[in-house]
Amino acid sequence: QSIQNKEALKGVVQAVEEKDGFPTLSIGKSFAEYTAYPSDDTFVRLANDENFGDAEVLELKNSGGNTPYTREIYVKFKFSETALKKLLASNRIYFEFYVNSHRAKMSEEETAAGGILADICGVDTNWTESELTGNNANKLAAEIAYIGEVRYAAKQYNAIDVTEYILENAKDGEVAFKITNIEHDGDSGQMRFASSESSTGTP
To answer: Out of 114, 147, 176, 200, which could bridge 151 as a Cys pair, Cβ 3.0 to 4.6 Å?
Structure first.
């Protein structure tokens, strides 16, 4: 897809489209028939006022605390009434993301387990990608519920079932998620995802 087509997909989801590299919601797992693209996606550096809403990559990193070196990813979806009905009527719904590049040096245990461990949480939707920062994320995108853990590795799709969370929290047509690296400290655990601003889907 071209960047123009991707930009047209940002905003309220009216229908479903083919999957690209950035985070999506899918009915069915891995290259699903139905896919919803995010209206907003960004990352923040904790204890920092810088905004990365127009970045072509989403960075995830654990630096062992509330420091500007720690990075978290936020993704939000908006749905039209028709698209929301389709989503809520589906059997299973997955939040999927593709890791494009990494600096990770996984341990033998991490490699055997399938990747580095991350937490997925549902968060408030009272934010846009152009305003979220590390200093206001806890207020604007406050955590609603812990969803679960997912192992992620480079050059592959990584998914977690979010069916129950969607059914409980998407009735107003919006839902948002936060991804945090909880296991691997430092540069060796840093991962990069394509954002919806990416011109290729593979930065």
So the answer is: 114
